[in-house]
Amino acid sequence: MWIAISALNLAIAVMLGAFGAHGLKARATEAQLTWWHTATDYFFYHALGLLALAILAKVVPQLPIRMSFTLIQIGIFFFCGSLYVMALGLPRGLGAITPIGGALMIAGWLILAWNAFKYAK
Which residue ranges run through the membrane (predicted)? Predict the structure, then answer.
């Protein structure tokens, strides 16, 4: 299931990147395009990270990844989603949840590091 979710994330990231490059470019401001680009970059990085986690779970099944995977996935939704929404011209106040998404992604990676250290012992 983890690999399937990762693959869906990557497919959506490609679609959103293409929309930003082709569909949004003609009618968005420079700031909106920057937000879109940032969201797409982070979406790709973290979708690839989720794929790496999914593969890691197959290779080292004893390493718990559920919490990390979930936090990173929710972080993608909040961080990237809020930037996409702002780039589409919806209320900029939604940008207040962007740092929450970033914190969730960071927490997911830190929990993975913690679990990896515990597993290494």
Answer: 42-60, 67-90, 96-117
